[in-house]
What does this fold into?
Amino acid sequence: MILGIPGVLAAQQRVDDGQKKKEEEEEVSPAEDLMREHGVLKRALLVYSECANRLESGKEVPPTTVTATANPIRKFIEEYHEKLEEEYLFPRFRKAGKLVDLVGVLEAQHKAGRRVTEQILTTAKASGFLRDEPAKKKLTAQIRAFIRMYEPHEAREDTVLFPAFREIVPKNEYDSLGEDFEKREHRLFGEEGFHKIVEEVAGLEKTIGIYDLGQFTPRG
It folds into this structure.
């Protein structure tokens, strides 16, 4: 069938409309982007928690699991996600005079988290640490300290900081920030960067035996 000019134009319009709809569906707001990255951190914290539980109870811990968990935390959370907050969110809150005290605590915790991550990596990389009881206790304490700080940290950002961010930023600027976040993510981690990190953490969950979501369902 040969389409006339009106038919060709109509067909092209349908393609354009479909592409536009797809692009709109794929748009992620800055807050949603940051919150789903928190989902990656939450899953990494679950791996950490299982490692700490095993270290405390004397159960086997795959030697590289701790370092393999610290690495995505460092490269995706500390060197990317937190940098977005420090460069795009915190200065705007300070300029607006809103949640300044909270921002100060959050930024201090970012710095503390990086120190603890370095400590975790140093301890976990030590040869034979699993056979050294003082080293095991030290590593467990470091992991517990990291978890204890970041669980309330990310919860406060999700429920207080991120919702307030939309209120202090004009809509057009807010929308453009979502594009800026996406561009930086793709530049650092590739087009499928977020999904690759999720798969990496899922692999760690499988290694440590906590990937099956059903195991967490209460019985009886």
